[in-house]
Amino acid sequence: MTMRPLMFFGTTNLDLCFNVDRLPTPGETLIGTLARNPGGKGANQAVAAARLGLQPYFYTRLGDDEAGRQLFLSLTKAGVRTDAVEICQGEPSGSAMVMVGDDGANMIVIDPGANLNATALTIDRAAAFIEPHAIVVAEMGIPVAALERLFELKAEKNFELIFNPAPVRPGLSAKAWASIDYLTPNQSETFELTGVEVLDFDSAANAAEKLLKFGPRAVLITLGAGGAYYCDESRSFGLPAFPVKVVDTTGAGDAFNGAFAAFLSQGRAVRDAVRGAMAVAALCVSRRGAQDSMPTAETVDVFLNQQTVLELE
């Protein structure tokens, strides 16, 4: 099985995570416990792939501050290749305030910091690390102009593109949408893009048809506890989620995206890659934190073997 190179483009944040009994209502004050965890969508995705045994490159921007040093160390410890990471003098690292209830639900507010200052020029510098025939994963946390430049480079660099449109915002050109190979929104992002409320595989199919008209080659919608739905011009399928006790949903979508890219880079078929990514996401939500909750390849294999036994019984 031929391994393809893998590179992620996205954001890195220091998560200030409050664990509370339940999420607050407007104007309400609650008591919780605070933990500081490395996070950010792009960083979480890159770490998810690295924990599975890959050595992906990652482009992000960090401030030259204590948070930036902590975030950089977390990436290197996980096995992410940091050659393309920019350390930015005079800019703060990104941060996020995360509240997680006992039921696993969360609320997140982000201060992008240095993430917000990615440009076409910084993308050009980072693109030097995109290897031939690579899989590139991008998310919408970096500025649209930077994403446009990355997508423009697809033909020149000859890579396959996975795009996680989170957080959804306007401005991406029709040409950029058409360069996407796999579009991977969750339910709320799908609703923002299409106006279709995704509740099950039937509604996911309706939304996926609308998303395909944007131009991507394939659409992969995650439905949380409802599983995942895949659609391209020739086939479609839905896979149910693995039943697990949910502790913290922070980073679940990132775990899925990072793992999906990792399994594709290992040469797995799309359906197998989706199933594996769902296993990684299931293991992620059964633990607290974002990057700290990303499972190893061995853990995923054990989990999937257990599921296979259950399916056969």
Q: Determine the CATH superfamily.
A: Ribokinase
* Helix/sheet category: alpha/beta
> What is the CATH topology classification name?
UDP-N-acetylmuramoyl-L-alanine:D-glutamate ligase
Q: In the CATH hierarchy, what is the architecture at level 2?
A: 3-Layer(aba) Sandwich
Shape: globular
Strand order of the largest sheet: 4-1-9-10-11-12-13-14
Number of domains: 1
Count of runs of 4 or more consecutive helical residues: 11
Alpha carbon gap, first and last residue? 31 Å
Average pLDDT score: 93
Largest sheet: 8 strands, mixed
Low-confidence stretches: none
Total beta strands: 14
Please bin the fraction of helical residues.
25-40%
**Share of residues in strands:** 15-25%
SSE topology string: EEEHEEHEEEHEHHEHEHHEEEHHH
Radius of gyration: 18 Å
CATH class: Alpha Beta
What would your notes on this structure say?
By secondary structure, the protein is of the alpha/beta class. It has a single domain (6-12, 40-94, 113-312), classed as 3-Layer(aba) Sandwich (UDP-N-acetylmuramoyl-L-alanine:D-glutamate ligase). It contains eleven helices and 14 strands. It has helices spanning 41-51, 66-78, 120-126, 144-152, 154-157, 174-178, 187-194, 201-212, 252-265, 270-285, 297-312; strands at 6-9, 13-19, 33-39, 57-59, 61-63, 86-88, 94-100, 106-111, 135-139, 160-164, 182-183, 218-222, 228-232, 236-239. The strands form three sheets. It has an eight-stranded mixed beta sheet with strand order 4-1-9-10-11-12-13-14, sandwiched between helices. It has a four-stranded mixed beta sheet with strand order 3-2-7-8. The longest helix is centred in the last third of the chain and has 16 residues, at 270-285. The protein is globular. The two termini are 31 Å apart. The model has no long low-confidence stretch (mean pLDDT 93).
